[in-house]
Design a protein that fits this description.
The chain has 129 residues and is of the alpha+beta class. It is 39% helix and 37% strand. The protein is globular and about 55 Å long.
Amino acid sequence: MNAYEHVLIARPDLSSPQVETMLEELAKTIGELGGAIVRQEYWGLRNLTYRIRKNRKGHYGLLAFNAPPSAIHELERRQRLNEDILRIMTVKLEEVTDQPSPILAKRDRDERRRRDRDRNDFGGADMGA
């Protein structure tokens, strides 16, 4: 089986739980087609670089998995029929890792910095003596 990463952009008027449910259904579909999910991530509602079908934002999601090529064709065919999905991109990889993607790693770093800055600004341990 080959290793793949699959990124999708969903319509912005969907809720986060709806998009996460969509990702779960896609993971289930990959399992039914003979694949195995390694990593599944929801990146949230993000700005688009350019408009897609008159939308300026979209919900991003990532699936990393191992599957046969026929599963990819069927997965992409099903997603082209779904009106809630604006764009898809599947990339073949050498191997799939279970490490978080750089998008999630950056978000975690930014949240830690923000949390540390807020703690220092509003009476944290570094207020001085």
